[in-house]
Design goal:
- By secondary structure, the chain is of the alpha/beta class.
- 40% of the residues lie in helices and 17% in strands.
- It has twelve helices and ten strands.
- A ten-stranded mixed sheet has the order 2-1-10-9-8-3-7-6-4-5, with helices on both faces.
- The longest helix is centred in the first third of the chain and has 16 residues, at 95-110.
- The chain is globular.
């Protein structure tokens, strides 16, 4: 056997010739070279996007680039649309392979003007250990990247995002990436069901400006000392500092269901299919975009709905599959 290496343009021309020879325009010859794994290249992606998508309206779709398609069509891209179900879930693979998918999402979102990338992680996750330093470096460089791994911070962000859904005029371009959510389930279940008072009153802070104007009117009518005397009479004893955690599973479920309509998308990374089987708080109906590495038939049935969709992938080292409920597409992820 002799290996012959050809460049990208030659491969594309070869693919076109095969289609013409077989008189099948929809024929997709599979190319795979495990020795060739490309890095996320912004110039290459911009060139591909201009050629294939033209000018992108980011208020209507957010293109995420994951790697090189095995069907020789170039960049493998999945658009997120502003409609229900436009969330992402990936299952399986090594921590290194999971990190490749994670960083591709981050880099793709960084291209979007007005982006907000929120990484919510279980601090004990092996994947988070692997990518924490890189994510924190990005957080230092880009104000649109936020990384949280304490339960209080995660609860605060979930509450903030839930409250933001009240503002229908706000245009969000937000991607929330969950690392180790299956291990955070128990933390949430053991937390109080009632939200902390600080969270309950957070949405009322927007009314302060109006109250200030009313205060000015009262001062004009009755003098500046009137309100201060009244306020002093109503002062309450200081309350003990409360723990800012709560069972956020209901809010997370609501965000997964309604968030994409408001431009708040979620991506969950699971090591195995186990959480899909046993944690029913997270409905699979909210995830149109599913990514997987090689899975057994039973796991494939549980995650993708059919047992034979990923047959043969155990022989395709380093290859990931994407399924949107219609067709399986395979690609080689970008290097992290």
């Amino acid at each position: 056997v002799k290996n012959i290496y050809i460049d990208g343009e030659t491969r594309y021309a070869l693919c076109q010739n095969i289609r013409s020879f077989l008189q099948a325009e929809d024929y997709l010859p599979v190319y795979m070279d495990e020795t060739e794994k490309k890095s996320y290249s912004l110039p290459q992606i911009q060139q591909w996007e201009e050629k294939n998508l033209g000018r992108v309206d980011y208020s209507r779709q957010i293109p995420l680039y994951w790697g090189e398609a095995l069907d020789l069509t170039g960049c493998f891209m999945v658009p997120l649309l502003h409609r229900r179900g436009e969330n992402i879930m990936s299952v399986g693979g090594t921590e290194e392979e999971q990190m490749q998918l994670l960083m591709s999402q981050v880099y793709s979102m960084q291209r979007i003007p007005g982006h907000r990338i929120i990484v919510l992680a279980d601090s004990y996750s092996r994947l988070f250990d692997l990518c924490e330093e890189k994510l924190l470096d990005l957080q230092e460089e880009d104000s649109g990247v936020e990384v949280y791994s304490s339960l209080e911070d995660i609860c605060r962000i979930v509450n903030e995002l839930t409250e933001s859904l009240r503002d229908r005029r706000r245009e969000n371009r937000t991607l929330v990436i969950w690392i180790g959510l299956e291990d955070l389930y128990d933390e949430f279940r053991n937390a109080p069901d009632t939200k902390p008072r600080a969270f309950k009153n957070s949405h009322r802070e927007k009314k302060k400006d109006v109250n200030d104007l009313l205060d000015e009117k009262w001062n004009q009518l009755f003098g500046e000392d009137f309100l201060s005397e009244t306020d002093s009479d109503l002062e309450e004893e200081p309350e003990d500092e409360e723990e800012l955690i709560y069972n956020a599973l209901e809010d997370i479920s609501s965000l997964l269901h309604t968030g994409p309509r408001s431009g708040i998308f979620h991506s969950i990374i699971y090591d195995t299919v186990y959480p899909v089987k046993h944690n029913r708080e997270i409905s699979m109906e909210n995830f149109r975009h599913k990514f997987a590495f090689a899975l057994g038939r039973d796991d494939c049935l549980e995650f993708l709905g059919r047992s034979n969709l990923l047959e043969g992938m155990e022989q395709q080292k380093g290859v990931a599959a994407y399924y949107d409920g219609k067709i399986v597409r395979k690609f080689i992820p970008y290097e992290a």
